[in-house]
Specification:
The protein is mostly helical. The protein has helices spanning 8-24, 29-35, 41-48. It is extended. The relative contact order is 0.10.
Length: 62
């Protein structure tokens, strides 16, 4: 079996993501699901915490 452990940096990213989701998504998820839309402001908040361009190389502005 392959063992996998997060690095301290990866653990920090996981923690920040979890806190963001708990604070900014979970309280509204049911309402957004029913309306079949979400608050666009969440996208800006994702950018503020650094998740919007997370898969883009820093070389290209990520």
């Amino acid at each position: 079996m392959v063992e996998f452990e997060l690095s301290p940096e990866q653990e920090l990213v996981r923690q920040v993501a979890r806190e963001f989701v708990d604070r900014e998504i979970v309280p509204f998820a049911r309402e957004w699901d029913r309306a079949e839309r979400m608050d666009r402001g969440v996208v800006g908040k994702l950018a503020e915490v650094g998740f919007l361009g997370a898969t883009i190389s820093e070389e290209y502005g990520g």
